[in-house]
Amino acid sequence: MVNFSGPVTAGGIVSPLCVVPFDLSANGYVEEEFLVSGTASCYVVPGEQGPDGLWAAEASGSAAFRTRIVIRRPTDPARFSGTLLLEWLNVSSGLEADPDWAYLHEEIFRSGHAYAAVSAQALGVQGGESLIGLPGPPSRGLRGLDPVRYGDLEHPGDQYSFDLFGQIGAALGGKGRGGSAESGRVLGSLAPLQVLAIGESQSAFYLTSYINAVH
After folding, report:
1. pTM for the whole thing?
2. I want to staple 179 with a disulfide (CB 3.0 to 4.6 A). Which of 58, 174, 201, 202 is the partner?
3. Poorest-pLDDT segment among 10-19, 25-34, 89-98, 101-110
4. What distance in Å separates the CA atoms of residue 107 and residue 42, rounded to the nearest whole number?
5. Phi, psi of 203 (to 5 degrees)
6. Rounded to an integer, what distance in angstroms lies between the CA atom of residue 67 and that of residue 120?
7. Quick one: pLDDT band at residue 175, thresholds 50, 70, 90?
8. Residue 36: which of 146, 167, 180, 198 has the closest Cα?
9. What is the pLDDT of residues 77-101, one digit of tens each?
């Protein structure tokens, strides 16, 4: 079970990096940020990972976490399509980026989908070296970029990311039953009928493992 707090009002949102400009208000959308806390399990796959994508993952310990999500949704509930897109933010550069938002935002606006960006990995929260060997100092992560807003975030490590992400998706989607009181509060009364997980590059690698072993 996860707990949401917010929308966060201290300081300003450290938005995921996006390579294209977009105008939320001109398209009838609003952006808010919430903090999410809970306890996530670590998953391991005993034995070999077979080529059929059917892996017998086992929970192995648990740890507390506190991360953030960025919500972008129609301001008019009547425009909502019923679909929530849940993006696993990409941290390859050392900073969080939302490439799928960049690819899909025009269709999201046109169709009235809701969107949630999840800080699923430790690098985005805690900071550290780029995963692709970019030159320069290590990233400071959300906690270092804005200690007032994000100083109490905590990520126990990427082995917990699968359950962290899955719990957030289930909570926001009400497990596919038209949302819940908690998801309605976070999504501005919107009640999703389906939640679609999306992610690019290394985020897609994680999602593939999530599908094969955890979901």
Report:
1. 0.91
2. 174
3. 10-19
4. 35
5. -65, -35
6. 8
7. low
8. 167
9. 999 999 999 999 999 888 899 999 9
Q: Closest by alpha carbon to 125, among 160, 95, 82?
A: 95
Amino acid identity, position 48 = E
Selection from 130, 109, 88 nearest residue 24 by Cα: 109
Residues 6+ apart with CB under 8 A from 118: 67, 69, 86, 87, 88, 89, 164, 165, 168
Amino acid, res. 149: R
**Residues in CB range of 129: below 8 A, 6 or more apart:** 94, 138, 139
For residue 92 the two structure tokens come to 């390859």
| Residue indicated by tokens 């999504």 | 187
Distance CA 97, CA 202 (A): 12
